[in-house]
Design goal:
By secondary structure, the protein is an alpha+beta fold. 64% of the residues lie in helices and 10% in strands. It contains twelve helices and seven strands. The strands form two sheets. Strands 2-3-1-6-7 form a five-stranded mixed beta sheet, sandwiched between helices. Strands 4-5 form a two-stranded antiparallel ribbon. Strand 2 and strand 3 (277-283) form a beta hairpin. Helix 2 packs antiparallel against helix 7 (155-196), helix 3 (50-71) runs antiparallel to helix 4 and helix 9 (237-244) packs across helix 10. It binds guanosine-5'-triphosphate.
């Protein structure tokens, strides 16, 4: 079984934020199993302490068993299991295996950090209870002297283990913080993207298009540079929906957006301003260049059919209204002029392109 399969266990059908926490939990479990297995090997192979080695092996297996909870989608129980095993393990280390001089109880510091990271926002009770138990156990271990440890360690050995505990605590803290950071960045990107783009086609949404388009127009106006804009409207799109179904219609729109994006590589911006209407800004495009762009787009739409999931080839045409740089101050005015051109194009017939050029 690949590591990625283990990490994704339980996260498959969950919403993004829940899935992220599950994956983080699985990562932490894998890392903890690794650390615990390392100590097991050290007890068995280096210190030759079989009793402690096998007891520690039991704890290592117990951590790994958390996977089964995830496997059966008992997500909260998987997390509770993990923290319970961890706290019992640390207690056994400082009060049975060795003594508090090993510093194993320092690992309790990871419990509140991990609990607040891994449990859901509404699972406050679990986070607080686990944190309180971990704090209480830390002070219990710190103030209890185990007079009959299973392994009597030398001062040097205790010191080495103590340093390894600090080392692994640091590693876990760095990993947890990095994951936390990554989750926050991912969420920010998602929110940003959701505010700006249309969910179906991933083109700019109407609001953001007008905002960003205005910025482009302002730059062109203040530098006296050419600026064109195309308003497009699919012809008889209703027929595609009626004939193949709304979902295939959706796929057609995605296909169209992909085609539009493939033609835009010079700072153009594509907005979906209504159902089957897209608008494209063409900064630095003269009339001739805008004309070439529109014709190429029209040609590709007609000649590059969309192949649906059930292998049907669907062709269509698109009418366009093109407005070439003029005295407009706002992107809204430009779109409105392009709309007049589009209206003319529709009258001229499916697949037509009409231009309005109005020099300043
Ligand atoms: N599949 C799908 N269809 C959409 C979406 N938004 C709008 N539509 C459909 O687009 C069609 C637009 O129909 P009309 O306004 O009559 O336009 P048309 O059929 O393209 O006709 P003309 O523009 O006059 O050539 C309607 O059937 C809408 O339901 C969408 O997000 N997905």
């Amino acid at each position: 079984m690949s590591i990625f399969k283990i990490i994704n266990t339980g996260a498959e059908f969950q919403p993004f934020n829940v899935a992220n926490k599950i994956k983080t939990n699985n990562w932490i479990t894998v890392i903890t199993v690794f650390i615990s297995a390392t100590y097991t090997l050290m007890y068995l192979l280096i210190l030759k302490e079989n009793v402690v080695g096998f007891l520690n092996l039991g704890f290592t297996i117990a951590y790994a068993l958390g996977y089964l909870f995830m496997r059966f989608n008992a997500i909260k129980n998987a997390k509770l299991w993990f923290f319970s095993v961890l706290m019992l393990h640390l207690w056994a280390c400082t009060n049975i295996f060795v003594t508090k001089l090993s510093g194993f109880h320092l690992f309790y510091f990871l419990v509140p950090v991990g609990a607040f990271l891994l449990f859901e926002l509404h699972q406050q009770k679990e986070k607080v209870i686990l944190s309180l138990i971990a704090t209480a156990l830390f002070f219990y271990c710190e103030n209890t002297i185990n007079t009959t440890p299973l392994i009597l360690l030398s001062h040097e050995a205790n010191n080495t283990i103590y340093q390894s505990v600090v080392f692994f605590t640091m590693i876990e803290l760095v990993v947890i913080s990095a994951m936390f950071n990554q989750q926050i960045s991912h969420h920010e990107a998602l929110i940003n993207n959701r505010d700006k783009t249309d969910k179906l086609t991933n083109c700019l949404n109407r609001n953001y298009f007008f905002e960003a388009g205005q910025e482009q127009l302002d730059i062109a106006n203040s530098n006296n540079r050419p600026f064109s804009l195309i308003l497009t409207n699919l012809d008889n799109f209703k027929r595609i929906n009626d004939k193949y179904g709304y979902l295939v219609g959706d796929d057609y729109l995605i296909h169209l957006a992909t085609l539009l994006k493939s033609l835009c590589n010079k700072g153009e911006m594509i907005g979906r301003i209504s159902g089957e209407e897209f608008v494209i800004t063409l900064p630095e495009y003269t009339r001739l260049e805008a004309e070439k762009f529109a014709q190429k787009l029209s040609y590709q739409i007609e000649n590059m059919p969309f192949i649906s999931a059930d292998k049907q080839a669907i062709s269509n045409t698109m009418s366009m209204g093109v407005v070439v740089h003029n005295s407009c101050e706002t992107i809204g005015e430009l779109v409105s002029i392009a709309d007049t051109a589009l209206y003319q194009a529709k009258i001229m017939g499916a697949g037509s392109i009409d231009f309005i050029e109005q020099m300043a």
